[in-house]
Amino acid sequence: MDEQQAQEKQSTLEQILAQRREKIARIREMGFEPYPYAFDVSHKSREITDHYEALEGKSVAVAGRLMTIRRMGKASFAHLQDAGGRIQLYVSRNDIGEKTYEMFMLLDIGDIVGVRGVVMKTRTGEITVKVDALTLLSKNIRPLPIVKEKDGVVYDAFADKELRYRHRYLDLIVNPEIKDVFIKRSAIIRATRDFFDSRGYLEVETPILQPLYGGANARPFITHHNSLNTDLFLRIADELYLKRLIVGGFDRVYEFSRNFRNEGMDRNHNPEFTAIEFYQAYVDYYYMMDLVEHYFRHIAETLGSPLIEYQGESIDFSKPFARRTMAELFHEYLGIDLGKADETLFAAWAREHHFEYDPKWNYGQFLDKLFDEFIEPKLLQPTFVLDYPKAISPLAKVRRDGDPRFVERFELFICAAEYVNAFSELNDPLDQRERLEGQDRLRALGDDEAQMLDEDFIRAIETGMPPTGGVGIGLDRVIMLFTGQSTIKDVLLFPAMRPEKLS
Fold first, then answer.
1. Is 402 contained in some domain?
2. Same domain, yes or no, for 190 and 133?
3. What is the pLDDT at residue 85?
4. Same domain, 245 and 387
C-alpha cells in the first residue's frame, strides 16, 4: 500500500469513527444506554439449532455480535454470533415497537445485542429467533474487517497472518472456526493433567523469577527487582527446582511451566512458551520412555482417534514408537562411526560435504549440529533417539555401559520436529559440579547459552537425590501436532510480534 492509499484509508476510518460516535449520541438522546451492565441469557445459538424440535415456538434469550444486517423497511433480518455459533434474527417494527426499531436502524455490523423472542423457521427453512425485545449491549465504534460471504462460502476472508496474530480478538470474531484450535488446546491441557494426576504425580509451582537460570541451554531474559536491588532471570526451565523437590521427598512431581528464552523465532519457537516437566524418583530413562509413549497415546485417544494426519504424514499412536540410538542413526544416514569419531573427523566430513561449521565446536556441539541438519528431517514417524553426547547434556547420567562420552538421554521426534527431552537424571554431586563448571568455562569462551553453576542446586543433591527419571515436553508443539497447525503462532492466542507502528 503506497502513502496516498494509506492516507485515504486512514481518512475513511476517521469518517467511520466519527459517524459511529454520532450514532452513540443519537441513541442516548432516544433514551437508550449503549453500554448497559448485564443481560440475562437463556440459550446459546448452538443449543437452539441443535435442539430446534424441543424449542420451536418457545421463548429464548440470546446475546452476541451482529455479523450481518439486511434492512427491509418495517422488518429486517440479521445474524447474531455468540460463543456457540450463529443464528438468524427476524426483527420487525410491529414486534419490538417503533422506538426500538428506530434505534435498531442505527446499529452496525459488530454491535453486541441481546434479544428475546420465539424460535421458528423461515419459509426457506432457516432456524430463526423472531425478536420481540432487543437491547443494545455494546455499540461498536471501530469497524470489523469486511468478510464477504454467500451461501456459506467465504469470498473475502480476514486472512492476513500478521493482522490475525496481532489483533487476535478480530481473528476470533471474523474467523470463529479458529476457536476450535484453542478449545482443543484446553482439552489437551486438561487431558495432560488427568494423565499425571491419575498416576500419583503432584502438581506443583516453582519460581518464574530466578536468581540463576538453568535446566536448559538457552539465553535468558533479565529483569531487575527494585526492593532486592538485584537482577533476576525469567526461567528458561523449571528442572532444577523440581529436582530440589525430589530431594525433599516428593517422589512424583509435575508442573505446567511457562518458560522464557531470549532467542530467535520461527515456526517452532516463540520467546515464551508452555512446557510440562515431570520427575519420578527410583526410575530411569527407559521407564520414562514408556511413560511418554503412553502419554501421547492418551492424548490421541482423548481427542477421539489414535490415528492423525500431520503435514501429509499419517501417524498411528497405537503402534509402538521406534527406538534408535544416535550412533545407529549417524551410521545409517551419514556413514559416521561415532565410536571412532572426534572433532577432527567431524571437521573433515564437514569440509567434504561443504557444511559450514565453527572450529570452536566441541564433539557434542558438532554432533548436535550435524544431527539437526541431516538426520532430524528424516524422522517422520514417532522415534525416540537415545544416548546423546555428554558434552551437551550436563544434567544426565553417563551411560551405564558403553562409551562414557554419551549419556542416558532421549528425545522424541515426530514429523521432523522434537517434542520431548528426557534423562536418567544425574544425581552424583561431584560429577554434577564438574559438568556445570565445564558449562561455566563455555560461557567464559562466549557461549551465552551454556548453563550456570547453581551452588544451591549442588547443595541439594549433595544432601542426596535418589535415582530419578525426568522429562520435559514442549506442550505448544504437542498442540500443534494434534490440531494440525504448522506454526506455533497458530496455537498461541497472543504470540510475540514486532511492535506495531501506529499512525
1. yes
2. no
3. 95
4. yes
- Please, what's the b/e burial string for 127-139 (b: 16 or more CB within 10 A of its CB; e: otherwise)? bbbbbbebbbbeb
DSSP-assigned letters across all residues of 290-351? HHHHHHHHHHHHHTT-SEEEETTEEEETTSPPEEEEHHHHHHHHH---TTT--HHHHHHHHH
Q: Is residue 366 part of a domain?
A: no
Predicted pLDDT of residue 330: 96
Residue 156 pLDDT exceeds 70:
no
Q: Which run of H or of E encompasses 59?
A: strand 59-72
Contact 139, 80 (CB under 8 A): no
Domain of residue 386 covers 180-321+382-491
End-to-end CA distance of the chain: give it in Å, rounded.
Answer: 14
Asked, for residue 472, whether it belongs to a domain, the answer is: yes
Give the pLDDT score at 499.
Answer: 86
Separation of alpha carbons 101 and 133, rounded Å: 10
Query: Residue 353: its pLDDT value, please?
Result: 92
**124 and 235 share a domain?**
no
pLDDT for the residue 360: 86
What digits encode the pLDDT tens for the residues 358-367? Answer: 888 888 999 9
Computed over every residue of the chain, the mean pLDDT equals 93
Q: Residues 462, 465, 466, 470: is their CA dihedral positive or negative?
A: negative
Do 119 and 194 fall within a single domain? Answer: no
Q: What is the DSSP string of 394-460?
A: TTBPBPSSS-TTEEEEEEEEETTEEEEEEEEB---HHHHHHHHHHHHHHHHTT-TTSPPP-HHHHHH
Mean pLDDT of 105-115: 97
What is the rounded distance in angstroms from the CA atom of residue 382 to the CA atom of residue 384?
7
Same-domain pairing of 304 and 397: yes
Are 136 and 213 within one domain?
no
Q: Is 261 helix (H, G, I), strand (E, B) or coil?
A: coil
Q: With H, G, I as helix, E, B as strand and everything else as coil, classify residue 20.
A: helix
- Give the closest residue to 382 by CA, choosing from 326, 291, 313, 301: 313
What is the tally of helices (H) and strands (E) in the chain?
16, 20
Category of 86 on φ-ψ map: left (φ > 0), alpha (ψ -120 to 50) or beta = beta
What is the number of domains present in the chain?
2
* Most confidently predicted of 93-102, 146-155, 394-403: 93-102
Any long-range contacts for 191-194 (C-beta under 8 Å, 24+ apart)? 191/298, 191/299, 191/302, 191/303, 192/256, 192/276, 192/295, 192/299, 192/475, 193/256
pLDDT for residue 440 is more than 90: no
Q: Strands 202-203 and 149-150: what pairing? A: unpaired
The pLDDT, as a whole number, for residue 150 is: 57
**394-432 b/e with 16+ CB inside 10 Å = b?**
bbbbbbeeeeebbbbbbbbbbbebbbbbbbbbbbebeeb
